Backbone:
């Protein structure tokens, strides 16, 4: 029963990570990561060796009213270590970016590979990253309109 509770806590952590990313809540995003968290995004194209570097990269590249994102994590495969203080997770990623500045939509899937560490009573991500299964880019048509954008002033 305890493993089920720990697994659910890790799922909630990853869901929070995605929500923070898409809503540009950089404090919440940072709170999901262990201080020494490492990351390798896009098949290792973007690699980072600490939480601040990860948060800085994301906030610098995703904080714009013309950059809209959606990240979903599906089908988690979570394994809790015997000592109960570390875990690993594999997630199927589905994402979409609407870049209004460049008038394109990027979408695709990938496989996330995470490591987690228990910090007090809560879990933190100690490593995260994904490898792409596929990625597509398509131009937005001239009739494309964004009907609602939480970042537009």
Residues:
């Amino acid at each position: 029963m305890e493993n089920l509770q720990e697994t659910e806590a890790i799922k909630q952590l990853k869901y929070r990570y995605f929500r923070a990313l898409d809503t540009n809540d950089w404090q919440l995003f940072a709170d999901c990561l262990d201080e020494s968290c490492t990351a390798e995004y896009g098949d290792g194209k973007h690699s980072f060796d600490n939480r601040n570097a990860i948060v800085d990269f994301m906030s610098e590249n995703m904080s714009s009213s013309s950059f809209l994102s959606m990240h979903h994590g599906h089908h988690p495969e979570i394994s809790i270590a015997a000592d109960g203080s570390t875990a690993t997770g594999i997630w199927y990623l589905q994402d979409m970016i609407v870049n209004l500045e460049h008038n394109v939509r990027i979408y695709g899937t990938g496989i996330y590979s995470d490591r987690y560490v228990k910090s007090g009573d809560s879990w933190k991500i100690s490593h995260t990253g994904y490898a792409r299964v596929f990625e597509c880019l398509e131009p937005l048509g001239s009739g494309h309109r964004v009907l609602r954008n939480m970042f537009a002033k």
